[in-house]
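Progress note, project year one: complex with 2-acetamido-2-deoxy-beta-D-glucopyranose.
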Amino acid sequence: MANEPASFWTQANALLRKNLTFQKRNVKTNVRLIMFPFLLCLLLVLLQRLVDSQLDKAENKCGCECVRREGDTCVEEECGIEHSDLDQVTTCAIPNPPEWSPLLQVPAPQYRAVRTDNFPFNDYPNASCRRNGSCPVTMLFTGTNQSFGEIISGNMIPSSFTAINSSAVMASLAANVAGSASYTENTNFLEPAFFSDQPIYYLQSQCTQNSTFSISFELSAAISREQELVCAEGLRLWRNSASEVNNELYRGYRKSNLEEQIQEIAAGYDFLNSNGRMFNVSIWYNSTYKNDTGSTEIALARIPRSVNLVSDAYLQFLLGPGTKMFFEFVKEMPKPSTPIKFDLASLLGGLFFTWVILQLFPIALTSLVYEKQQRLRIMMKMHGLGDGPYWMISYGYFLALSIVYMLCFVIFGSLIGLNFFTMNDYSIQFVFYFIYINLQIALAFLLASVFSNVKTATVIAYIGVFGTGLLAGFLFQFFVQDTSFPRGWIIVMELYPGFALYRGLYEFSQYSFNGDALGTDGMRWGDLSDSENGMKEVLIIMFVEWILVLSFAYYIDQLLSTGSRKSPLFFFKRFQKKPDSSFRKPSIRRQKSKVFVQMEKPDVTQERERVENLLLEPTINQAIVCDDLRKVYPGRDGNPEKLAVRGLSLALPQGECFGMLGPNGAGKTSFINMMIGLTKPTSGTAFVEGLDIRTHMDGIYTSMGVCPQHDLLWESLTGREHLLFYGRLKNLKGSALTEAVEESLKSVNLFYGGVADKKAGKYSGGMKRRLSVAISLIGDPKVVYMDEPSTGLDPASRNNLWNVVKRAKQDRAIILTTHSMEEAEVLCDRLGIFVDGSLQCIGNPKELKGRYGGTYVFTMTTSVDDEKAVENLVRRLSPNANKIYHISGTQKFELPKEDVKIADVFKAVETAKRSFTVSAWGLADTTLEDVFIKVARAAQPFDTLS
Ligand SMILES: *[C@@H]1O[C@H](CO)[C@@H](O)[C@H](O)[C@H]1NC(C)=O
Ligand SMILES: *[C@@H]1O[C@H](CO)[C@@H](O)[C@H](O)[C@H]1NC(C)=O
Ligand SMILES: *[C@@H]1O[C@H](CO)[C@@H](O)[C@H](O)[C@H]1NC(C)=O
Ligand SMILES: *[C@@H]1O[C@H](CO)[C@@H](O)[C@H](O)[C@H]1NC(C)=O
Ligand SMILES: *[C@@H]1O[C@H](CO)[C@@H](O)[C@H](O)[C@H]1NC(C)=O
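Model obtained:
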């Protein structure tokens, strides 16, 4: 059962459990992560408190006024005043609104209509009046009965000034026709005309000299004003039809900022069919007079007087010139106080919350890069973890992490009452954050393929986070607010996800800020269609980017992931015919390589022939068949290309352990890398359990175990957790899994003393090695590669490990590289000595020793004077003896086996001992080491061996 490859869901489950355990270990980091938004929110609340307390000061409080200051501090304040100064009016309660004399809206002197080339109506004054500000205020009249119209319009503009009674200023102002060129505001609690720099005009049919007066009035103890009253001539112009009036108003309208093109006309009246029994009138008024900050309805505040003016004129026509009717006051309704609010959190929210959300990015990125840097991803892949489950679980894992993070953030922000969260529709927030965190994770996956070092990735990611926040807050926002900046460019900028995020948060903050200040709602779905609201574009951009980035990241991952062997167009490969997975026939290329074969040693040639036969008649019991495997690294920087592996042919049956010996740089690692799918062979191929390594690596992975040269372990997982994870990947379940893990732990001596449950990061080098070996063997893989498994082990552990491997090799094929001859001898059934990219010899250890040894090594140590005697002794034993080593009295000789009998040697030494002192001597059979050195030296005559 364990041999069946694990299903998608089994793999996903294994990875998920591993990640959860990993996460459990990371509690501290997670708490720190979640604390970040909490702290930021708290900081915002504190800042808000500070602002509120500042706003609550005496000078901002309604009805209080500082009456005595010392320097900057107020030492005495007086309260109970209704509205102490102009700044307080907007926020204070106004139970008794002041009464204002109703005014007409009149154009400012420099804009009043005059005759020009563009405005060629004869009865307007000459443009010269603009120079001294004496232009008349023009009103246009029309109607069916002109004589009737003239009378009424004549009544509208008085010919004399009614003096102002200083104790009843507003009332007596109403006896005149007063107007102002100032713009109204969005409330009329204070009529701006009485507080503006511009004078109040009174219309008169003819202005006399001394026509400027001054009025003063008192609103409260704190507010008293003096205002100039200036005469303006009222010019009545009769037109024959309403369309003439219309035309003139239209042409007078300000089209540019050129003063001579502006011809403002105060109002137009059409008396229609009115007569002595019926009054029917329509009035043109200009609603465009408004301050930028206000809303459109504002100018209406000055319409009542223009209606009243014409009604009074008609009544006067009916009742006679002595009739006096006054429209004395207008006043706002009373209002309660509206405290000053300044929602700092909403205002700063954009920047702060951008940081909070961007925080997640480095976390996903570094975690992905960590697995890449530590080569854990490849390790998992080599043990059968497919790309599908890896992507699904990693993605899901980051998504879950992000969602939890965002939930904490929004809930906490809402709980402490930040308007940013509470005022905007939660469903919009959810959609926005959800799309963004998905985009962010996809980006992390994409960028993870660029980085290979966690430190670089972390530094760059954090620079990105803070840089993005600052750029967005201080540059991008500036463009967004600048209405003249082309919207198209803003959208281009929003293609950068950090800016898109900022834009979304900015919109939320704008809605909550305005909502708080004006008492309106925050953002609702309906608001998305507002032209000013950038949320809709942001959502679309982010969604499209998410899909694109995710597909691209997956594509790049497939392309770059060292474990896969795919061309940039691998997607199209799907549609091509699949190559047969069975063994291929030896190709014609083989004939050419015969030339090369001639130079090979007979044992190597024999192996090559065996492989060729095997390829013709596939036999299942061959676990590994390498067919003329070659690896050539292309030449770089003018260096010639390097042949790392030159046509390796090798067949390994089930149950064999093959040892690969060879000096450093001989190409062993290149060979292993091809076999485990890290690199692609330049030519030739290998079949593992009948599957071609060029095309079916994924299938091979399910029955493969690797013990890499450097331990690839998760520092924070325990040994047991490692084995559980890899066991699950190999489709072990339930009790089989626990048993396998325990057995495995026991076999590598990691079971007792709680070692199994210690974190791998705390293991010694030897323990890590043993764990790596255990990992490579768990789940009963059919083929195992071990790269120097016993390096760094103490002799006891090494023996232990050897026993494990010996037991393990019984039903699987193991390829083992080592530098320890002892290990090779103990473990391997066959050995190959690999030098300069090709096998120099192959055979079992005994054969090799026999073939390449064939000598005894005789060592003798005497005093320097007796050296000659020793040499003579050896010559007597064997004339073909060969001195291989000589240093101050110690000499080593090679004695051909066929020349000497061991007994003769002993006898000779006994005799020699009588004639001179022998401090030490020895006779040894050739060791594998001697074989190795010999073979290597023969193959690399110019190389110095290390
Ligand atoms: C026009 O109005 C004047 C003044 O009220 C009146 O005397 C005259 O009869 C009116 N003309 C017409 C045609 O109604
Ligand atoms: C001015 O107004 C006050 C109060 O309405 C009134 O008592 C006084 O008679 C007025 N004076 C004149 C000269 O009309
Ligand atoms: C518009 O409002 C500003 C500030 O409230 C004021 O200074 C300015 O005079 C106003 N403009 C006009 C034409 O009233
Ligand atoms: C109406 O008011 C606007 C704003 O001051 C001005 O530009 C325009 O010329 C005025 N129209 C007329 C016909 O006076
Ligand atoms: C007032 O004038 C309008 C437009 O000329 C006209 O349609 C309407 O009938 C008139 N009203 C009366 C009561 O004559």
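The longest helix spans residues 27-55.
The two ends are 47 Å apart (CA to CA).
No further modelling is planned for this target in the current period.
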